[in-house]
Amino acid sequence: MSDVARSRAAGRKERVRAAEILDRLEETYPDAHCELDFRTPFELLVATMLSAQTTDARVNLVTPRLFSRIEGPQDVLDLGVEAVEDAIRDVGLFRTKARNVVATSEILVGRHEGAVPCDREALEALPGVGPKTASVVLSNAFGVPALAVDTHVFRVAHRLGLSHAKTPDATSQDLMALWAPERWIRAHHTLIFHGRRICDARRPLCASCPVAALCPEGRRRLGSASTSSLSARA
């Protein structure tokens, strides 16, 4: 077998393994969804910006104070930075985030008629919006196939051996190469659910994991005999 054929065979094998992993995780978390509370694309954009280095649960406690006073970016401009800071001060880096929310609102009003664009380039041009935030907004607000990589997705993907990339953006590219675009959005939520509920950063519950038999880290932690019995029961 040539090197090219061997590489293609390895690639097919990995895609089959990735598909089985995602199938099992989707069966385990059929209700996987975005856990940020939002009603509009603008609320999702703001909530996602606030979620950097902060849990979704914390953001959901804070956003009602802000969202009760705003409906769109013009309302943010009317409030001003200090009022936004006061509304979100319980999230980390609230001053920087407040400035970014106001600066983003200025651009939305001035360049996009007050609407959140459904274009990646335009989203990533907004202050405080990177590839992950853009992917979250595109996929959850507009249904555009995207696969955002946060700390949970990054950790789970690497433990499962689905990526060995060193950055979230490169990890996202690896994952998107393994699954068809129509699976990306649900894969993002499913991997997050798994990371929060079983594949914990410090104490992963490998014995309860539905994909332990397919996971290099799970096999290492449990031993080959344990994962063989898990595979037989699956």
Structural class, please?
Answer: mainly alpha
Spatial shape: elongated
CATH level-four homologous superfamily name of the largest domain:
Helix-hairpin-Helix base-excision DNA repair enzymes (C-terminal)
How much of the polypeptide forms β-strand, as a percent range? under 5%
| CATH classification class of the largest domain | Mainly Alpha
* Rg, alpha carbons: 20 Å
Counted beta strands: 0
Counted by DSSP, the helix tally is 13
N-end to C-end Cα span: 33 Å
Reading the helices and strands in chain order gives HHHHHHHHHHHHH
Largest sheet: none
CATH architecture annotation name of the largest domain: Orthogonal Bundle
CATH topology of the largest domain: Endonuclease Iii, domain 2
List unreliable stretches of 5+ residues.
1-7
- Total tally of structural domains: 2
Task: Name the helicity range.
Answer: 55-70%
**How much is the average pLDDT?**
92
Describe what you observe in this structure.
The structure is a single chain. It is elongated, with a radius of gyration of 20 Å. It contains 13 helices and no strands. By secondary structure, it is mainly alpha-helical. It starts with a helix and ends with a helix. The longest helix has 26 residues. Helices cover 65% and strands 0% of the residues. Helix 4 packs across helix 6, helix 9 crosses helix 11 and helix 12 packs across helix 13. The chain folds into 2 domains: 111 residues, Orthogonal Bundle (Endonuclease Iii, domain 2), CATH 1.10.1670.10; 102 residues, Endonuclease III, domain 1 (Orthogonal Bundle).
